Structures are given as structure tokens and as C-alpha cells.
Amino acid sequence: MENLVVIDLGSNSVRMTITEVHDDGTTKVVAQEKDMVRLSEDMGPEKILQDDAMARTIEAMKKFVKTFKSLPNVHLHAVATAATRQAKNQSEFLTNLKDATGVEVKVISGEQEAYYDYLGVTNTLPVVNAVIMDTGGASIELIFMLQRRIQNLISIPMGSVSLTETYLDPEHITAPALFKLTTAMDRLYNDIWWLDKARNLPIVALGGSNRTLAKIERRRAKTPHFENIHGFRMSTDQVNRVFSTVIGADLTERKEIPGLSKDRADIIVGGMVPIVNLMRFLDSDRITFSQSGLREGVLYERLHEMKR
């Protein structure tokens, strides 16, 4: 039996999943942890990780190490995504992280991140044709899938944190600022030539900002276990209603919206605009939500390796 520890060092949060992988190929998730470290905070156009953000991330990693260090037969797979990928002081940060925690983190490309998302989704949801969208803190991954096979994919170096810092005042969302952001997203999608081939397809959504759409809707409908959003679907009207509620609130009011965590309230508009615009661009009639993404993709890749 192997204890597979997968750590996803993201731009907004750092997450860990520990899965027991048994000799017969069966699996059991035994621990999941998350810390909102906001690693990409104030990176700016210089793309420099800030001292406070790096310190928060190192402290979170120390907690993770305490959780798994006493487990037997650990196979550790720690990856870093957009914020670390873009950072000019990447080497310094990763060296300090390893010195402080003993964890060696691999920086993966945006394309590899998108591929792991694809593995996580297709191994846990019966999706055939779709556009998979993962909105993170500093990047957006899009995967165009037909007959469960990747046709095209792209990683866009902007996300909920960076879009908020570039376009929005989190305290009060103004119409001019929102217009500039939505216009920028429309131009971006127009420049991705293969998105035209994906028109009218449903979207499969992952990432914290996208999942928050589902959580708000499920809380509104008083759905039991509202956080269990895997496979949950929302129509265009439902998405637009939630988005309208979010953009119509100031920061204090957003912190009180059921289903929206207080530590995401400042970046949630910047996090939701990409999927709302994509839904309109593709003329999609629904979104299906996935709780499986990068970490689950790493798991399925590992299971495939062990079968060889």
C-alpha cells in the first residue's frame, strides 16, 4: 500500500490530498487540507513574489508536512502552478521552501496543468463533448474536448487575483471597471481560434471561483450538503442570477452571501467574469461543476504508472 501525497501550490490557495493506493488498485482519500495563502498577491507586472505571500505559503507547507511525515510508504508529488511559474524570483522561493520544509516542488507548465485537469474530469464525470475551464488565481486553463479526447488546450496567464488587481476595486464594483474587464475577456476569447469550433458545447467548471457559483446557488436553494458540487449543473439563467447578486454587492455585502467564503469575497468578481463571458461567447446552455482537477489528475496518472 502506498500513501500518495499530492500538493497543489496554486496562486490563491495551497491544497493537499492524501490517498491510500492499495495493491489491488483501489484508492481511499484519507486527508484533504487547504490554506488560502494568496501567493500571487501584489506580484504586479514585475512578476515578483512578495515576502509576506511566500512566508504564508511556507507556513502552510510546514503544516502539510506535519500531516504526512509519519505515514508509511509516502510517494510525494508536489507541483506549483501559475504564480510560481510566472515569478522572476521562482528559484529563490523554491529554494527557501525546500530548506524550510524539505519539500521539493516541481513547477509545471500551463499545458501540463490543463492536462491534469482533463484527467481529473474525464475519470470522474461522464462528459463526452465539452470545454473544461479551470479558473485559478493567476491563470485560466481551457480544454476543448470531443468524444472524450483533447482537441485543443491553452493556459492563459491571468486569473481571479490578477484580474482583480488589474481591473477592479474590490470594495465597490463600478460599471466602467466591469465593462473594461468583460471587454478584455471578450477580446481574449476572440483571439483563441479554436473556440469557434466549441460553440454550443457545455462547460465543465473547476477552480475555486467557478465552484463558488455552484455553492451560492445550492445555498440559495437550501440544498443539503451544499459543498458537494461534483456533477452539479447550472443553467444560463441560474448563473446570471448568481453573478448579478455578486456584482450588485459591495465587499462587505459579498462577505455575507451564503456559499461565498469571506476570504474569497474580494476576488470573486474577477474570478467569475471569465466563466460568465465564456458561457456567453460559446452560447452554452449549462455548466457542470467538477471537484476533480489537478490533484485527481496526478492520482490517475500515478495509477496508470503503477499498472505498467
UniProtKB/TrEMBL annotation:
Top-level taxon of the source organism: Bacteria
SUPFAM superfamilies: Actin-like ATPase domain (SSF53067)
InterPro entries (UniProt xref): ATPase_NBD, GppA/Ppx_hydrolase, Ppx_GppA_N
Domain Ppx/GppA phosphatase N-terminal: from-to ranges: 22-304
Gene Ontology biological process terms, A to Z: regulation of transcription by RNA polymerase II
PANTHER family reported for this sequence: EXOPOLYPHOSPHATASE, RETROGRADE REGULATION PROTEIN 2
Family: Belongs to the GppA/Ppx family.
Protein name per Swiss-Prot or TrEMBL: Exopolyphosphatase
Organism: Schleiferilactobacillus perolens DSM 12744
